Amino acid sequence: MKRQEASENGRTGAVSIRSVAERAGVSIATVSRVLNTPDKVSQATAERVREAIEDLEYRPNLFAKGLLTKRSRVIGVSLPDIHGEFYSELMCALDDRACALGYHLLVSSNAHRVERGPGNGFALDLVDGMIVMLTERTGVDIEGISKLSHPAVVIGFDEPGLEVETIVVDNQTGARKAIEHLLSGNTPDRCYFVGAHRGNIDSDERLNAFCAALRERGHEPRSDQIARREFSFDWGWEWAEGMIDEGLLEDVAVFAANDEIAIGIANAARDRGVDIPGSLRVVGFDDSRLCSLLRPKLSSVRMPVREIGHAAIEAIIRRIEEPDSAPRHARLATTFVQRESSGLS
Amino acid sequence: MKRQEASENGRTGAVSIRSVAERAGVSIATVSRVLNTPDKVSQATAERVREAIEDLEYRPNLFAKGLLTKRSRVIGVSLPDIHGEFYSELMCALDDRACALGYHLLVSSNAHRVERGPGNGFALDLVDGMIVMLTERTGVDIEGISKLSHPAVVIGFDEPGLEVETIVVDNQTGARKAIEHLLSGNTPDRCYFVGAHRGNIDSDERLNAFCAALRERGHEPRSDQIARREFSFDWGWEWAEGMIDEGLLEDVAVFAANDEIAIGIANAARDRGVDIPGSLRVVGFDDSRLCSLLRPKLSSVRMPVREIGHAAIEAIIRRIEEPDSAPRHARLATTFVQRESSGLS
DNA sequence: CTGAAAGCGCTTACAG
DNA sequence: CTGAAAGCGCTTACAG
Questions:
Q1: B14 and B123 share a domain?
Q2: Nearest chain B Cα to A76, which residue?
Q3: Is residue A65 in a domain?
Q4: SS3 state of residue A278
Q5: Residues of the domain holding A280
Q6: Same-domain status, B226 and B139
Q7: What does the pLDDT look like over A113-170, one tens digit per residue?
């Protein structure tokens, strides 16, 4: 029935603002006002229009609306990756906040590159703003991002004088605490750093904290104390296997640049009979759910993932709604969380 | 410079198809053709237009385009949740495939409900189609989904005669293998099922497989052999603690309805000194990455997550592009993966 | 408070 | 192969 009436109108059979107007006996302008500026419409009229809308199950065409308002209430999210606990949690936080504020998320892990050329059909042009997370120091194209037609918020990269809003994490503080903790039980020359490849922003910063702490104790880190490849379980595993093979993984402390690496190390150690934390003390980074799932439970440095997500959504919405406000630069704290894997309660 | 020229035109300063046309000395229709049906344009003209497009960095307004074509190349994805290994992997698979096929993903875990009323500003109307994942038997509103203005694909729920395309998993087969494996080492009266609440489709199906297998061995499952609450680590933990307190967790086999529950159980057992798999054998479900990270490694039933994701994208695109084709109904297999936690190599 | 009208930036028959 | 024109479904000054 309703469907029937609906398709009376327009050529496509879809319910348009016109059908609502006809049914309510008003102009389409009035229907529009009922929807967008209800206070400019008389009670009675508004009521009639609302009924018509309901009867017809009318829903405004968002393309037409967007064409005029240049708004879609969609936020683009570009991540270096989607997989893993960290991104999973981040997505949740983004989604929750966006949803609460009436926005939707257009997500992609494949769309960093500010693609040239129009043919690409980049749906990204539908968004009101972009949240871009960066993890690599190179190939960043912050230029491109800030020249984007939409406002943008960058997660993970900051630099003095940047014209875009940024949200970064203070790797330093948490890392420092973790390393101090390791140094309270092991001498500096028996401490190791296992991280991702050079150029990864977080890994590099965590490494810096590591080196600084060792130097403060008067020990210049040897190159064999620093191992870098990638944020993966396998890499941690491989590193630990190598160390064990050389009889080196005894009475040492390891600061891993993320939890996955730490878990790889811990598993290898366990499988090869190295006692944790007796003979090997390990601390990870991220404080993902995995930390408490493992045995021994993994000490780690907490990343404020939800805070990052919430801040990013709030920031991008602020920039969308107040484009002329000055871009802010947030820095969120990390905190050391001690558990079993690093002993010395 | 370029920017300058760009803003010569239109009131907004944005580059429109008009500015491109002027610069190339053609009509806007021709510009449009170069972009959409290049074969209908002469080489020379096309070349000039392309240059203008490049110089001006023109990108078509997707709202205007969508208004005409009713296409955005955006696929809506509605999930019951975003968190956890399963959804994380699913999102990856969806994103990869969508990206490869030139589509984008509009994701939400908060948008199942086919919201009434227009005011809601549901950006979902911007999508070309929806992928909806269902996990609960009740409150499903398949009706609503199939009446959506866009094509839809449902993951996780199937029923004879459904008008929407569906993709489900064959819980039966994999679960059956897992339980047979457990029954090869424990008597039916010493087997337990720990799952999610009644009404959860997957949990129920896995339970059915469990019961069927026990009955085949001539044992009617006692009510205390079946425990249901939720898909969580904590629930598994709590259940195991209870069993241990009553001295019941000895020489038993547990089929957990997902990996998280299984891990909770395994951890509780470990912390309380129950030997796995010596005294307790456990099998999970999902075969998430966690299985290999734990010690002992967790036996599980593999969910074809990537396959589900890829199939869903391909299905929705097929429905978008060929709306009149008959909806298909796919059923993907699950397979048992034996590891250490269930012993009996 | 309400309506007629212009226009957002495109696509697509329709002529030529 | 190309252009003039209509129109997609809305919003928003502008009058009244």
A1: no
A2: B106
A3: no
A4: coil
A5: 171-303+336-342
A6: no
A7: 444 332 344 567 899 999 999 999 876 666 677 667 789 999 999 988 778 899 999 9
